[in-house]
Specification:
The protein has about 230 residues and is of the alpha/beta class. It has helices at about 20-30, 40-55, 65-75, 85-95, 105-115, 125-135, 150, 160-170, 185-195, 220-225; strands spanning about 5-10, 120-125, 145-150, 175-180, 195-200, 215. Strands 3-2-1-4-5-6 form a six-stranded parallel beta sheet, sandwiched between helices.
Length: about 230
């Protein structure tokens, strides 16, 4: 058994295949809008959305602005300046909450770790989407609690977010925690800021610029670390 007792899992692109969920939700959200969905439009949206979330992590924008701004920018890239941004945003969030595609190995690894560890989710995702997705997901039974930054008033990678999670769990021995996620700028930096060990889940090898405690290219490789 490892030294860890508490596993803090990121949600999107760690437990859920967010890229696939995003693609499906965007296709539904754009139906009936002035912009026709296509794979290239999905790629444009993904880049815009990713850049805005990076700005959010740095405190350069707010969650409320992000929710609509990503669609405003997408439509304006195609010369559409009076598109129904707010309506598309709401439609997307509703659709995203219904997308529950898991990453490869998510169910199997959680099944293996369940009852051996206390397992939590830590996410910057929108509360309305995350609550619905996890509530109806078969993964939900494995978690002791889901921590959503929108409800905390602070977000990853802020140390304050992790401090609040630790305070709620009630064990202040930080060496007993392991943060597991796909984002160097959110999960790995956040763990570093909070003085916690981290595991980067990356399906490809790359220099993330922030050194995690561990790196795995498959969720099932967590067995080598934790079992």
């Amino acid at each position: 058994m490892s030294k860890y007792r508490y596993l803090l899992f990121d949600a999107d692109n760690t437990l859920f295949d967010f890229d696939r969920c995003e693609y499906e939700a965007l296709q539904i959200a754009l139906c009936g809008s002035p912009l026709e969905f296509s794979p290239s439009v999905a790629d444009e949206y993904h880049m815009i959305n990713d850049a805005l979330w990076k700005d959010f992590e740095k405190g350069l924008t707010t969650r409320d602005i992000l929710r609509v701004e990503r669609y405003k920018r997408l439509f304006e890239c195609h010369g559409l300046y009076n598109a129904p941004y707010v309506e598309v945003s709401k439609k997307y969030e509703t659709s995203l909450s219904e997308q529950r595609y898991e990453t490869d190995g998510a169910f199997e690894i959680l099944s293996s770790l369940y009852e051996k560890y206390k397992i939590y989710v830590i996410t910057n995702g929108l509360a309305i989407s995350q609550k619905s997705r996890f509530g109806a997901s078969r993964l939900n039974k494995f978690f002791d609690k889901i921590y959503i930054s929108e409800e905390f008033g602070t977000a990853k990678p802020s140390a304050d977010f992790f401090d609040k999670v630790i305070a709620d769990i009630g064990d202040f021995e930080r060496e007993r925690y392991l943060v597991i996620g796909d984002s160097p700028s959110s999960d790995i930096l956040g763990a570093k800021n909070a003085g916690l060990d981290s595991c980067l889940y990356s399906r490809v090898s790359h220099d993330c610029g922030i050194e995690p405690t561990y790196t795995v290219h498959s969720l099932l490789s967590l067995k080598d670390i934790l079992l």
